[in-house]
Design brief:
By secondary structure, the protein is α/β, with parallel strands linked by helices. The protein is built from nine helices and seven strands; from the N terminus they run E-E-H-H-E-E-E-H-H-E-H-H-E-H-H-H. The strands form two sheets. Strands 3-4-5-6-7 form a five-stranded mixed β-sheet, with helices on both faces. Helix 2 packs across helix 7 and helix 3 runs antiparallel to helix 4. Belongs to the RmuC family.
Length: 389
């Protein structure tokens, strides 16, 4: 029970309860209000930096806005510049494409001309190749004909004679050799070189047996090779012996003869693989020569012939030298006479000059009427005029 003045209030009275509840609520509201005011003060103090930051943020936002406006202007300028650059680039590209197109057109035209020219040259070369092919075909036929010639003994001998004749005619004077010359024993030499004694005329034979060499070259087995080598030795030995017996005659020919080989290959084969045959030729005084060595030998013979002809003309040369010496001696005598004449003429000219000088002096004195100076220098031949005369 609560006593307030004259009034008493019980705790179970609803009015009292309501009043108490209201008072409690009012007190709670006051407390909360005080707490809120204090919290608001603390919040105000705490929000001051935040407000400053917000202010600064606002300024930054403003600056950012200004920058955004400037950026927008710059972007517009860049966009315009980019558009202009793109336009210029397009123009340049168009010009460049036009130039490239023109250049490509010129290059294509030039390439077309060069291609046409190359095709023309190729056509000419093909024509030349066709002609060369025809020549090769013809040459093949000639080679086959040459093989046919060499396969026959008589035609092969004629071929060797023709080749030997060509070489000899180029190396020696026409009067220094004879073709198909007949010797005293009735044998006929393919060529006889008229060398002086010593060594005397020398014979050349051009009929070499090529069958043995062909067999040696065509041998396929060792047995065939050995048989061909035996055949070649036998054939060459017989040929060397025949040349020595036919073309080396005492008192008529030189003490030796030449065996002409129409092939350098045969000559190399004999010297490389059959040196004993070459030595046997030396012993028999039969010298084996090829076209090349035959030319060298004939050039040596040409020098011998030239020396012999010089010796034959030695007497005539001596006579001519004697006459030349006489002419020189006579010329010397005449030069001496002419020199004496010149000396005499020089003396006469000197005397004439002296006389002329004297005559000139006298003429000048007469011109000056210098008679007094004339008397002392008078000549005995001068006649004095009498005074008063």
């Amino acid at each position: 029970m609560i006593q307030i003045g004259e009034n008493s209030y019980a705790f179970d009275d609803p009015v009292v309860i309501a009043a108490l509840v209201g008072a409690a609520l009012l007190l709670l509201v006051l407390v909360l209000l005080i707490m809120a005011v204090r919290a608001a003060g603390r919040s105000a103090r705490m929000t001051e930096p935040l407000a400053q930051q917000v202010t600064q943020l606002g300024q930054s936002v403003q600056t950012l806005s200004d920058g955004q406006h400037q950026l927008a202007g710059g972007l517009n300028h860049v966009s315009e510049a980019q558009a202009a650059a793109q336009a210029n680039m397009l123009q340049l590209m168009e010009k460049r494409l036009a130039q490239v197109s023109g250049q490509m057109t010129e290059n294509l035209q030039g390439s077309a001309r060069r291609t046409a020219q190359s095709l023309g040259e190729l056509q000419q070369r093909l024509t030349a190749i066709d002609k060369a092919q025809e020549n090769i075909t013809k040459l093949s036929g000639d080679v086959l004909s040459l093989q046919d010639i060499l396969s026959n003994k008589q035609t092969r001998g004629a071929f060797g004679e023709i080749q030997l004749t060509d070489i000899v005619s180029k190396a020696l004077p026409s009067d220094s050799y004879s073709l198909q010359a007949t010797l005293s024993n009735g044998r006929r030499a393919d060529c006889l070189i008229h060398l002086p004694n010593p060594p005397g005329p020398i014979c050349i034979d051009s009929k070499f047996p090529l069958e043995a060499y062909e067999a040696l070259r065509n041998a396929a087995t060792d047995w065939e090779l050995n048989e061909a080598a035996k055949f070649l030795r036998t054939s060459v030995r017989k040929h060397i012996r025949d040349i020595g017996e036919k073309y080396i005659l005492d008192g008529e020919t030189a003490d030796g003869a030449l065996m002409f080989l129409p092939s350098e290959a045969v000559y190399a084969e004999l010297h490389a693989n059959f040196p004993e045959l070459v030595r046997e030729g030396f012993e028999k005084r039969v010298w084996i020569v090829s076209p090349t060595t035959c030319m060298a030998t004939l050039n040596t013979m040409r020098a011998i012939l030239k020396d012999a002809r010089m010796r034959e003309q030695a007497g005539a040369i001596r006579r001519e030298l004697g006459l030349l010496f006489a002419d020189v001696d006579r010329l010397g005598t005449r030069v001496e006479n002419l020199d004496r004449h010149f000396n005499q003429a020089a003396k006469d000219i000197s005397d004439i000059k002296i006389s002329a000088d004297k005559a000139g002096k006298r003429a000048r004195r007469l011109d000056n009427f210098d008679f007094e100076e004339l008397a002392p220098d008078s000549d005995p031949a001068i006649v004095k005029l009498p005074k008063g005369g």
